[in-house]
Predict the 3D structure of the following.
Amino acid sequence: PEMDVPAVGRGGDLEGAAAAFRLALEYNGRFSEPYNNLALVAIRRGDLDEAEALLRRALLLNEDFAEAWTNLGYVRLRRGDAVQAVAAFEEAIAIDPGQLDARYDLVLALAETGDLEEAWEHALRLDVATPDDPAALGLAAWIAARRGRFDEALGWSTRALATAPTEPLANLAAGVALLERGEAEAAEPFLRAAEAGDLGPAASMSLGLALLRLGRWSEAGGAFEAALRDRPDLLPALVGAGTAAAGRGDIPAARTSLTRALELDTSTGALDDATRTAAQALLATMEPSSFPAP
């Protein structure tokens, strides 16, 4: 869930909030709460380095500060360090089992590590703890989709969207499930709603795939570029960007993206076999020998 910054200062603006928290530190720099609150401001600004430094300072002052552990996990997850995010969320829950934000984000972090069964177990626990909560239902829908249980994903997402039509993960799960069924056109509105929910590269990636299947190359390229702004090393997005560029006839851009993806894959192995093979085949058509001599 989006990090909330306490609404202080005129209109609750971020600059006013930051000034108030700094003033609190001037009066007593031994309080951990202002450091945590300043970290929330930094998160909202997108400055994850500053946020992590502030949260570490808060935890030095109070190692049992569950909210700071939750926020540290959130920062790590945003950075793509899912393993360390899991550790931070588990620490928060051990200190305060009522940390629902930590429970929610723990499911996402476990899914990012590839431990989908553990993620599913925690998603079900969260649903029990917060029955009929759209966010928990959307989370269960997303994990069901990640597990390849697309009918279940649609069932969970339908329940969530009945009371909260803009719930981001429910929209993402519904879009992915429909996309996997070959219904790209039906998936598009759900995936656009998910992208508007600031879910990061997952929503943009899925939207890009739907647009590729619809042959809308320029729009697909824009979606993949949005994913790469958040995660420049996201290899499936690089392949998608290259495919979209090829579709619109921009061969140099296509070659650059596909080559970069395959070079990174050599060291990381992050691409699945089907995506790797498709990227290699498409790149092979762009080699100089593939084009007629002038």
